[in-house]
């Protein structure tokens, strides 16, 4: 059982929902830093490693911060008040469940 499922069971009686989001490759300063390290390690130009991640999902692009913002906004809204113990993957179709 996932940690957020256990917490959802513990906190549900108080009306508290517990959910998570799992982003894939999102173009942020963190991804840029990992890209710089990976590209240097492989002896390739900067941006090479991050660009290779585009092929890792069915949409063919890395995510943008706004791709994740919508999911987070939904999870904290009243519209998601009956959702708890779930993890929503935001990765452009890299992983399926």
Automatic annotation (TrEMBL):
What GO annotations for molecular function exist for this entry?
oxidoreductase activity
Reply yes or no: does the keyword Cytoplasm apply: no
Superkingdom of the source species: Eukaryota
Q: Which Pfam families match?
A: adh_short_C2
- Which InterPro entries does the UniProt record give? NAD(P)-bd_dom_sf, SDR_fam
Keywords attached to this Swiss-Prot or TrEMBL record, sorted alphabetically, are: Oxidoreductase
Family note: Belongs to the short-chain dehydrogenases/reductases (SDR) family.
Designated name of the protein: Diacetyl reductase [(S)-acetoin forming]
| Species annotation | Grifola frondosa (Maitake)
Gene for this chain: butA_0
